[in-house]
Amino acid sequence: MYIPRTLRRLKDRLEHRRGIHGALFEPYRGDEVVSLDCETTSLNVAEAEILSIAAVRVRGTRVLTSERLDIRLKPPASLGADSIKIHKLRATDLADGIEIDEALRLVLEFVGNRPILGYYVSFDVRMLDKYLRPRYGFGLPNKTIELSHVYHDIIKWKSIGGTVDLRFDTLASRLDVPIIERHTALGDAITVALMYVRLKHGEAPSASH
Predict the structure, then answer these.
(1) Which CATH code, of 3.30.420.10, 3.90.1010.10, 3.30.70.330, 1.10.10.60, is assigned to 29-201?
(2) Could you report the per-residue pLDDT of 182-192, keeping only the tens digit for each?
(3) Residue 114's closest CA among 144, 136, 137?
(4) Which end of the chain is more exposed for a tag (fewer CB within 10 A), N or C?
(5) What is the pTM of this model?
(6) If you write DSSP's letter for every residue of 28-43 in order, what string do you get?
(7) What are the two backbone dihedrals, phi and then psi, of residue 11, each rounded to the nearest 5 degrees?
């Protein structure tokens, strides 16, 4: 039976807030968000496996690239030519990767209870939850911030008819933000962080589409 994420988060909080990971379930009181991205073998959560995970902290108008997480995992058997064409990660590039258990520990430690920012962030959260739940008994409890929703909400009042183009490259162009190493976890995480800062603290983007 499908359980909405909101209900799952509530159930997880009730069960784990007094446990060893209880701090993850406390309301966040700080001023940071974490831009996070995963590169995977597929866009189908049920069959996809994680190849790399990256995250960078954002504090106010600053993208803290010195405070980042950049993980490569061991190559899965499902790594194929189609996915390699997108993220350029071959089995040899992942030879020194770490195990998923260690990767999850590092992610939880780095992110803490900060809000998670991303482009189609629900996919990344669902991918991590897929591995977290069997091991920890809970999924990521963090608030999420979808970059494309932030963009749309800011410019929708300027848009007269038609649809708003929410493609990654279009957002970067409209916001005058350089795309850094597209389809790498760290590059996408930093680019999303830069776009978020531009949206929150810069001049409102044009409604052209």
Answers:
(1) 3.30.420.10
(2) 879 999 999 99
(3) 144
(4) N
(5) 0.88
(6) P-SSEEEEEEEEES-S
(7) -60, -45
